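Quick start: read one record
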Amino acid sequence: QVQLVESGGGSVQSGGSLRLSCAASGYTYTYGSMGWFRQAPGKAREGVASIYIYNGGTYYADSVKGRFTISKDNTLYLQMNSLEPGDTAMYYCAAEEARATMPTMPDQFGYWGQGTQVTVSS
């Protein structure tokens, strides 16, 4: 059974940085993908970044390009720099088993963590 546990959220001022981590247990899909999503109150869950397991290929939402970096060793990370108040949300780690194209939408992922809160103040 796949279990995902996020950590690293917190409160920072605008311009600050945070690094989120996602520990994955039971995940053995070499040709799968993992990703980070976020959801602000009253808004839909949106994709932030995704990464292919087998070759490290990545996807970033336009709103975070140049500021956020997704990476993975035995843990999935999201390095977030130059944070803005608009980045305030609950951040979720997600994983899926295998897709021919880079997954970017919530319904393309079958496994989810419980989330970690990120709050950015101006």
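The longest strand covers residues 18-25.
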